[in-house]
Amino acid sequence: MLMSERSIDDLYRDPEQLPAEDFVFDRQVARVFPDMIRRSVPGYATVVNMTGVLAGVWVQNGSNCYDLGCSLGASALSMAAAIDVPSVRILAIDNSAEMIERARRIPRDDDRIAIEWCCADIMEVGIVNASMVVLNYTLQFIPLHLRLELLRRIRAGMRPGAILVLSEKVRFPDATEERLQNEMHHAFKRANGYNELEISRKRSALERVLLPESIAQHRERLASAGFSRCDLWFRCFNFVSMVARV
Ligand code: GEK
Questions:
Q1: Is the Cβ atom of 96 under 6 angstroms away from ligand 1?
Q2: In angstroms, rounded to a whole number, what is the distance separating the alpha carbons of residues 121 and 168?
Q3: CA angle, 142 as apex, 140 and 148 as ends, to 5°?
Q4: Are the CB atoms for 33 and 47 separated by under 8 Å?
Q5: pLDDT at residue 188 above 60?
Q6: Can you tell me which atom of ligand 1 is nearest the CA of 75?
Q7: How deeply is 199 buried, as exposed, middle or buried, from its count of CB atoms within 10 A (0-12, 13-18, 19+)?
Q8: CB neighbours of residue 122 within 10 Å
Q9: Cα angle value 76/77/79 (rounded, 5°)
Q10: What is the pLDDT of residues 58-104, one digit of tens each?
Q11: 233 CA from centroid of ligand 1 (Å)
Q12: Which of 60, 61, 151, 168 lies most in the core, judged by the most C-beta atoms within 10 Å?
């Protein structure tokens, strides 16, 4: 097991130590990332595992798969383990050099399918011949005015019968529901050992960089980008995952 997998996320624990004001995916975050995301995102392990199950069903012979905003490549690795058709390439892309550097070093038991790790901005990456594209908790970090352009580009690079897996933190238009879901998310973090100070400091750091939208906004944008349908397949509190089809 890599050191990264054992490192505990205590980045916001010590009030004397001030991490960057706005949250960034730097070396410190890459080091603790598996622990951070498991303890912060309800349903993360299920979504990653089911990304593999979806890949086993939808990935087509001779096509490309993209893991956009791959971090340490959990979704790419899950897809690679489940794909059972020949001549597939997986392209795992992240603009954090520290994430990609670590992801490349993760040992694999099964390297039937090569994963091409790429440090790049997903706004600048060409999408071609794709049968599956994954945006697991990445679109939420893309500036709002660029999201439609990105989805259009993804859609244009997809083959007939392809799917996009879109997992996001969402907000709810109904204020009471929004409060309830946020409270449950905080309870989830407390249950995973984060204290009130850590939760509130992390929330402030993410405020300007993680911009959640409603499920309806995602559906509308996916339709505008040319997807024929979008089905919600998973939700836990204010975290959802959808499958959009060409
Ligand atoms: C997982 N999908 O483990 N271009 C490339 N990467 C980006 C960009 C961009 N413009 N903006 C943000 N990122 C992963 C988890 S984490 C989610 C994804 C979270 C990257 C960023 O560097 C980070 O690694 C990732 O998107 C978001 O299944 O931390 O909540």
A1: yes
A2: 19
A3: 95
A4: no
A5: yes
A6: 28
A7: middle
A8: 23
A9: 65
A10: 999 999 999 999 999 999 999 999 999 999 999 999 999 999 999 99
A11: 21
A12: 151
Ligand 1 pocket, residue 49 CB under 6 Å: no
- Cβ(209)–Cβ(141) under 8 Å? yes
Residue pointed to by tokens 């309870």: 187
Q: Which atom of ligand 1 is nearest to the CA of 51?
A: 28
What are the residue ranges of helices labelled H in the chain? 3-6, 27-40, 44-58, 74-82, 97-105, 147-156, 175-191, 196-206, 215-224
Does residue 100's CB lie within 6 angstroms of at least one atom of ligand 1? no
What's the CA-to-centroid distance between 142 and ligand 1, angstroms? 9
- If you search the block for the tokens 């205590």, which residue do you land on? 10
Rounded Cα–Cα distance for residues 73 and 78 (Å): 8
Please give the structure tokens belonging to residue 44. Answer: 């993360």
Domains in the chain (CATH in brackets) are 1-246 (3.40.50.150)
- Is residue 74 in contact with ligand 1, taking CB distance under 6 Å? yes
The pTM of the full predicted model, rounded to 2 decimals, is 0.94
State the Cα–Cα distance between residues 1 and 19, nearest whole angstrom: 27
Query: Helix (H, G, I), strand (E, B), or coil: what is residue 42?
Result: coil
